[in-house]
Specification:
By secondary structure, the protein is mainly α. It is 81% helix and 0% strand. It folds into two domains: 180 residues, Growth Hormone, Chain: A (Up-down Bundle), CATH 1.20.1250; 194 residues, Growth Hormone, Chain: A (Up-down Bundle).
Length: 423
């Protein structure tokens, strides 16, 4: 396991996520200040995930062809630009554009995951994927605190400028310290450029380029459906993410309206969950995988999540910071296990030369769930405040059933260089 490039990669991801965390909690109120109605606020929240859904597999496959490093550099630059636009977004259309641009840049998570598969072996991969999860946890602990202070003291423009400066520093670090991990892609890329320079072939038309890009989803789906465990993992990825987002969209309303929590207390709750996520994904997950293995942890992660989502609205109103925190402990542990292990197992069951593409498709599946989940959660909450949590609980049990089905596919039996189909 090559630690040095992995550390640099995780640092760039962390800086990116802190910048994301600075802006995200302020979006609904800022959009409302600009005169956005509830539908427009929803669109502003969803456009980020929509762009991730579209661009994740494109970044992933491009990283297979030209290398992880150039894709990371281009996408980080786009993210920095998006925050500069955000700083000047005094109208709703410009705010939507800024968030869409940020979604395009942040879709590089597929390339980052593929980078990890390049520099880790099968035994250390889940732990490395867990470090990305830990970066998410740290980003959502530090980012909102910085964003709240900046907006209160200097205004929303400073929030955008500081985020842009942070991502620009990330970009500079990546230029000088992030090496290429996909050596075969470098050779393919250089050979391709040489071939083109030695011939007078006409440039590819825009329509043909777009046609090829849209066909990549079909190619990715064929790869996934040719492998039974990959199909199961993609389904598990979607229903689990949908369950969590479906529940999360109702959480703030529940905590305010049912548990009578203040905004400051809600911030403490997010920090509490984030700290446990960092503890688990930052190191504990590696020890657990060595002791129990991916399959068992994947199963138990779903069961822990069930406890952490289903019982939340059934706790007594005065028990948010007692029984409620115990329930949220199960939520934090479960989500910290399921997400990185799902990604690791997808990479381990993937065909070696298409890992970037398949991980990109996985990220798109994740993003699609994040687009649909908020609509489901808000509608269900309007019907009954407990409904989003009941639905989330049922879906996590369905995920546990899928996890059980995966037990018969032995990861250790796979040859790392084999690309034969897994029946």
């Amino acid at each position: 396991m090559k630690r040095s490039p992995l550390v640099i990669l995780l640092l760039t991801v962390l800086l990116d996520l802190i910048g994301f965390g600075i802006v995200l909690p302020l979006l609904p109120t800022y959009a409302k200040d600009l005169g956005a109605n509830p539908f427009m606020i929803g669109l502003i929240a969803a456009i980020f995930s929509i762009m991730q859904f579209i661009f994740s597999p494109l970044w992933g496959k491009l990283s297979d062809k030209i290398g992880r490093r150039p894709v990371m550099l281009i996408s980080i630059f786009i993210t920095a630009l998006s925050y500069l636009v955000f700083a000047q977004a005094a109208t709703i259309p410009l705010l939507i554009f800024a968030r869409g641009l940020s979604g395009i840049g942040s879709a590089n998570i597929a390339a980052a995951q593929a980078y990890i598969t390049d520099v880790t072996d099968s035994k250390s991969r889940s732990g490395a994927m867990g470090m990305i999860g830990a970066a998410f946890g740290i980003g959502f602990i530090i980012g909102p605190l910085i964003g709240g202070i900046l907006k209160h003291s200097y205004g929303i423009q400073m929030v955008g400028y500081v985020s842009a400066a942070l991502i620009t520093f990330d970009f500079i670090l990546a230029i000088f310290l992030l090496p290429e991990s996909n050596k075969s892609a470098q050779k393919i890329s250089f050979g391709f450029l040489k071939k083109r320079s030695e011939s007078d072939q006409p440039k590819q038309s825009t329509l043909r380029f777009l046609g090829e890009k849209t066909s990549e989803y079909g190619e990715g789906l064929k790869l996934v459906f040719s492998s039974r465990p990959l199909t199961l993992l993609m389904i598990a990825n979607y229903i689990y993410t949908f369950a969590i987002v479906n529940m999360q969209v109702a959480s703030i309303l529940l905590w305010k309206e049912y548990f009578m929590a203040s905004d400051k207390q809600i911030g403490y709750i997010f920090a509490y969950v984030g700290i446990w996520s960092v503890v688990v994904q930052g190191g504990l997950i590696r020890k657990l995988i060595k002791k129990l293995g991916e399959h068992k942890l994947f199963f138990w992660g779903h069961l822990f999540t069930f406890v952490g989502v289903f019982f939340v609205p059934f706790a007594p109103q005065s028990s948010l910071f007692s029984i409620g925190l115990v329930i949220l402990f199960f939520f934090a542990i479960g989500t910290s296990l399921v997400a990185p292990i799902n990604l690791s197992m997808i990479s381990l069951y993937s065909y070696k030369q298409q890992q970037g593409q398949i991980l990109g498709l996985s990220q798109s599946v994740n993003s699609f769930a994040r687009i649909m989940g908020p609509f489901s959660g808000s509608i269900l909450y309007g019907m009954n405040f407990r409904a989003p949590y009941i639905v989330a609980g049922v879906l996590t049990i369905a995920g546990a059933v899928i996890a059980l089905k995966l037990f018969k596919y032995n990861i250790e039996a796979l040859e790392p260089e084999t690309e034969a189909e897994i029946a």
